[in-house]
């Protein structure tokens, strides 16, 4: 069992990101000292959301200059920390160079952080933000699971650099983390594997793909209909709680699926209908799979026929019981998460009602 001294600082990589920002807020609300390595500690515009939280919470926030791909740059920020949260990793579906934009930052960044942990005597535990993408590539992968459900024992074996490179990047990064962890015995590794993260972020203009998905529900892109694309979903606030518990629960170990709901994109959109349907072009019907098959690749290069065949109208099922049992997790209703996220986009001017 690993007990973390709450008087010691904790380090959070990617602190300006969507997931990490909400985690930093939770840590500061708990009165902890947070070390935040960032590319430019003097960029007050990029840090303003974190600074606002720090000014109104009992914890202490300290910035350090570091870069994910600059070996050794995390050493100063990690000094004296017993607990390290490694959340930094890109989430984009559309990229020009998957190796450069997805795989290298995820893999080499993880190696950089964990090798620094090897050289930092104070570190007792690393909590890694992986993904359910390291467990599966497509909904059709359910057919290969022992009981027709994704569990922590399942690994993604089908993604490649050329086929679903985001899932590939998360898989190889987590595998590298376990290899580095098992080669030493001083610090333990606890992994959280979230499904699609939704809900209001600290920065309403964050660049995560999650924002693009929710935005399309209200900007008219899907006004003719929305595919029943199977997916899991978890609220970013619940995910922050999962990280916190993964860090401070002495008995925590191994991987944890962090997902509140087995759902699909149309079901997510439908939760917005009552509150926003009269003011925004919320999709009202599911798009037939045959129609997506015909026109999908013509209107969206990412919507390949293979992607449609292996995800649309197919269920996504994951077992989140370990997170409830080991981390004490409970999950918000799906409608609350989607509606709160959508409202944040309205409040920030990213979605405008019909005139």
From TrEMBL:
The keyword Oxidoreductase applies. Residues 10-251 form the NAD-dependent epimerase/dehydratase domain. Keywords: Oxidoreductase. GO terms for molecular function: oxidoreductase activity, acting on the CH-OH group of donors, NAD or NADP as acceptor. Coiled coil: none annotated. InterPro entries: Epimerase_deHydtase, NAD(P)-bd_dom_sf, NAD(P)_dehydrat-like. It comes from Saccharospirillum salsuginis. Pfam families: Epimerase. This is Aldehyde reductase.
């Amino acid at each position: 069992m690993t007990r973390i001294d709450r008087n010691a600082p904790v380090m959070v990589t990617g602190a300006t990101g969507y997931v990490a920002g909400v985690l930093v807020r939770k840590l500061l609300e708990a009165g902890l000292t947070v070390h935040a390595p960032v590319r430019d500690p003097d960029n007050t515009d990029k840090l303003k959301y974190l600074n606002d939280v720090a000014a109104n919470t009992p914890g202490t926030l300290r910035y350090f200059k570091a870069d994910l791909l600059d070996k050794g740059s995390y050493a100063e920020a990690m000094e004296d920390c017993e607990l390290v949260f490694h959340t930094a990793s890109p989430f984009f579906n559309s990229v020009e160079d998957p190796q450069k934009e997805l795989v290298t930052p995820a893999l080499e960044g993880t190696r950089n952080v964990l090798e620094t942990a090897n050289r930092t005597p104070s570190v007792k535990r690393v909590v890694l933000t992986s993904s359910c993408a390291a467990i599966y590539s497509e909904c059709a992968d359910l057919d290969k699971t022992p009981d027709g459900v994704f569990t922590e024992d399942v690994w993604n074996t089908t993604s490649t650099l050329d086929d679903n490179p985001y899932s590939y990047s998360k898989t190889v990064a987590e595998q590298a983390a376990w290899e580095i962890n098992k080669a030493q015995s001083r610090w333990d590794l606890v992994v959280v594997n979230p499904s699609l993260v939704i809900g209001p972020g600290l920065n309403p203009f964050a660049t995560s793909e999650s924002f693009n998905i929710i935005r399309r529900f209200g900007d008219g892109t899907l006004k003719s209909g929305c595919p029943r694309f199977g997916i899991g979903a978890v609220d970013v606030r619940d995910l922050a709680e999962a990280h916190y518990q993964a860090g401070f629960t002495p008995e925590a170990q191994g991987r944890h699926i962090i997902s509140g709901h087995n759902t699909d994109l149309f079901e997510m959109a439908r939760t917005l209908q009552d509150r926003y349907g009269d003011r925004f072009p919320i999709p009202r019907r599911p798009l037939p799979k045959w129609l997506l098959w015909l026109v999908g690749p013509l209107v969206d290069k990412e919507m390949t026929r293979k992607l449609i065949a292996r995800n649309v109208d197919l269920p996504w099922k994951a077992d989140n019981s370990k997170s409830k049992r080991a981390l004490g997790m409970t999950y918000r209703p799906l409608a609350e998460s989607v509606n709160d996220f959508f409202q944040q986009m309205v409040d920030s001017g990213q979605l405008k009602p019909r005139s």
